[in-house]
Amino acid sequence: MKKFRKIVMIFILLIMYIYIVAIQSIPNNIVIFEGEKINLKTILGLNINLIEKGEVIETLSNSQTKTINNVGKKTVKLSLFQNIFLKDINIDVLPKTKVIPVGGIAGIKLYTSGVLVVGMSEIQGIDNKKYKPYASSGIEEGDTIISINSKKVETTEDLVKQVNESAGNELEIEYIHGDQTTECSIKPVQTSKSEYKLGLWVRDSAAGVGTVTFYEPSTKSFGALGHGITDIDTEKLIDIASGEFVTTKILNVVKGESGNPGKIQGTVDNQKNIGIISKNTKFGIYGKVDNITNLNINTNKEMEVALREEIKTGKATIMCTLENGKIDEYEVEIEKVYRDNNYDNKSMLIKVTDERLLEKTGGIIQGMSGAPLIQNGKFCGAITHVLVNHPNEGYAVFGDIMIKQMKAVE
Hints:
Layout: H1 2-25, E1 29-33, E2 37-39, E3 46-52, E4 55-61, E5 65-67, E6 72-80, E7 84-94, E8 98-101, E9 105-120, E10 123-124, E11 130-131, E12 144-148, E13 151-152, H2 156-164, E14 171-177, E15 180-186, E16 189-192, E17 195-197, E18 200-216, E19 221-224, E20 240-246, E21 249-254, E22 263-267, E23 273-281, E24 284-289, E25 303-304, E26 314-323, E27 326-337, E28 348-352, H3 355-361, E29 372-375, E30 378-387, E31 390-398, H4 399-409
Parallel strand pairs: 1-7
Antiparallel strand pairs: 2-5, 3-4, 3-6, 6-7, 8-18, 8-25, 9-12, 9-18, 9-20, 10-11, 12-13, 12-14, 14-15, 16-17, 18-19, 19-24, 20-23, 21-22, 23-24, 26-27, 26-29, 27-28, 28-31, 29-30, 30-31
């Protein structure tokens, strides 16, 4: 009997766990386009109640979908067996958007909020002894130092100056670890007559080249890359304070091959300003265009953003730049569409079929991230990744995700 009760208890706990996971997996805030379907995956007993003027107008259950055609903010209620209220879900329905696909390459300069810790090393003091002053501080690679002794740290020069002025006295350091801001104390080690060190390697900026995906004329906003910029050492998304978008000069195009991705090499030095980068997200970088003449766009190419239900497997094109001042369009094949994917930037599997592009690049290469994807006269998304062992194939992110990210930035 005791064994049976134990089995029943385990079964009940398992059922409770399944429901808790299902409830937590449903987001509190959702952004969709006018005409897009709400598709919230539920399990038996979980109901989504559509509310209008305080009244339930429709109930969705067991992964049913509903097309929303009215623009604006709406609230739906999640309940268990219609009787137990669980939480409100806020839905922001955006109007259908038109953008101008760009496909031009540009330079990217990012400046971090604070200084990013990218490494740690043992240091030799003026007494020739070895020290690790950071050892018990709790600071790790990928953390961001934002202040020392309550003074803001914005650049590596700020940090070096404050450490050298410490004269070896213990420093109170404020830093960000994950989503938490915390503090610690570190006593710098004297390494020469006027120099003190913490044993930390830090960085306050990053630069590179990538492809501008689209320009949205009504807000003068742009989106690019389709993926976030991560630090090369920590492999974490860079938390930026500001950024610049500038013209770039292509120096070389390295053709990709199996196991060795190619790349577009360019310079961001002494180039003209395009705009300001305001956000670095896992779905791309976004900001405002200040000098549209430096963006090199074709205003006649304005088109609607495709809903993901409109994207089909089959022929499509991408726009990209391989020669200075020249944007070309190339044929690709959409091999798979992952319509339910809202979690990463691998929304579609793409194959390059255009012989011209294969001859020049071998397929998808670094620097082409952000190349706009177009099908049936609509903007569908942007190239984000290459399959290293199959450089003619890669992934693209949905255009609707990029637009929603842009709207969240505005």
